[in-house]
Structures
1.
Amino acid sequence: MHEFLVEITTTIPEGTSQEEVDRLRAAEAARARELAATGHLARLWRPVGELRSIGIWRATDENELHEKVLGTLPLRPWMTPRVTPLEPHPNDPGNGFSTR
């Protein structure tokens, strides 16, 4: 699988009831757990005070990421994703990089 840095901005349409927002957020949390269990969602952060998330996502390619992963998120119609494909860095400490 390939890794992608995905920044997602969520914009809730005006006039959307709080009940609908709460329902979709609960469905979103459940789907995120499923995607994490299958290895598609590796990490997820939210900048303080923003309706934006930054995450490390995994898929076989960018097409799968958009269609079969991000496209399955309940809040997807309200999301604007920015995807950056990633590749390993030779100095990544997580890959056993040593200063010796």
2.
Amino acid sequence: MAGHSKWANIQHRKGRQDEKRGKVWTRVIREIIVAARLGGGDLDVNPRLRLAIEKAKAANMPADTIKRNIDKATGNLEGVHYEEVRYEGYGIGGAAIIIDCMTDNRVRTVAEVRHIFSKYGGNLGTEGSVAFQFKHCGQLIFAPGTSEDKVMEVALEAGADDVITHDDGSIEVLTPPLEFEAIKAALTNVGLTPEVAEVTMRAENTVELTGDDAARQQKLLDMLEDLDDAQDVFHNAELN
């Protein structure tokens, strides 16, 4: 990503997420249910569930709500069956977009995704049409002014894949997905707290959009993120 706007894009994304706190519980509950169904309710052997519970606690979800949804997923309580489904497509200027959904009705969800792409200037693609442009990895991003030497020393010692310093001074640490928790803990234990910490689909290359194109792309992304079934939306557009 072009360094001059890396931090600005991150702050914008965080602002958008803060505006949508009302949907956070719904999304986290779905993630807890699917993680527990796939990997069981034992946190010691289910890293995906550990991450989901961490998100739930960050959103101030009560412990009994967390437990109840784990019980639903593992068969101790009756619950809705959600399945994961990924959609891929193109936005403004050919920007690549991935939408990860959890749904109890695939027909409804794909119709809604297709409608948004069509209405807001994008195109829904086929499976695999853009995913190759992204890397599944852990990502930790530190604010400009953080000690580059300290981040690099601790992260690489803990097993990070790469440490990237951007032109704007922000520092990005990339990790293998399964090592994300351990590397994050190593950094926070020495006082290095990331602004962004997630397992994500990171774009390998970006498409820079400005002016009206950037505004149109943002509108498309906003509408996709507002879908009830959408869990995450990843894209390779850099909006200026």
